[in-house]
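step: validate -> pass
step: tokenize input -> pass
step: predict -> running
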Amino acid sequence: MSKRIMTTAAAGLALMVALSACGAKDDAGSSSASQKPLKEIKVVLDWTPNTNHTGLYVAKEKGYYQEQGLDVKIIQPGEAGADSMVASGEVPFGIGYQEGLTYARTEGIPLVSLAAVIQHNTSGFAAPVSKNIKSPKDFAGKTYGGFGGPSETAILETLMKADGADPSSVKVINIGSADYFTAVKRDVDFSWIYYGWTGVEAELRNEPIDMIYMKDFSPQLDYYTPLLLTNEKMIKENPETVKAFMAATAKGYDYAIAHPEDAAEQLLKGAPDLDEKLVKASQAWISKQYQADASQWGIQKLDVYKGYADWMTEHKILEKPFDPAAAFTNDFLPGQGKGN
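step: predict -> pass
step: emit ->
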């Protein structure tokens, strides 16, 4: 065989191999021109990544969003905050709180909650055991370190009155976002924390605390925190995208409920700067709280929205009318609403 024929044959063989490789890719769907491109979507967190957000990271890392045709980017909030970013449409989905949602709705801001990330309020007031604060009556004469929220003093008042104590005896100072462990050693006697993160961290640090959950003293304070939010325009104009996002997100949280250890690993993949030991311990605790006693993850009840809004109105925190039924929807949760 001549050199020219050999070269021509080699070239033909190379072309056949190349075409075969392209065909293999096309069969797998990874480079097919007919494959529908993923829709890029952003979801903004309320704070830095933590185990409240694990379901989002599971859905992303395990490909649940991709299965729904979505390419989801998880971002942290800017100076405007997650609520503003979602309400304006800058970002279609975000993590928020019932208090902020309630305020927004009374001002005509079109936020809507799609799911309760956690079924019950796992936040409350914590103090080192050395402070001997065992119930709200023990707040009397102590210093509380708050973050400047409008509801804080009203919550203290509600709890202390329910426990037969005088709320006027509490000294309230604003510590902002100061570290809890530093503040209670230096500036204050007790502060407001989420047990699923800071409480678990206290266990790991071997710094035992007494925890007073607000829901134990007032059913109206057993509100949803956090929430998964969108806006009215998104629901009206892109319902299929909302449905797809929620299908994948619910699958992510369901996985985290059933597999907390691996779910923690998925969060750490997406947020590798987090403390591994804290993430795993927190996940073991909080996975039991996501659904708790509800029929499924994310489900929301009208009474919870109405009860908290009534409490806010009674304490003159809320001064404008609030329609609780318009503030949330369960329709995009799997098995709920039309088309499910």
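step: describe -> The radius of gyration is 25 Å.
step: cleanup -> pass
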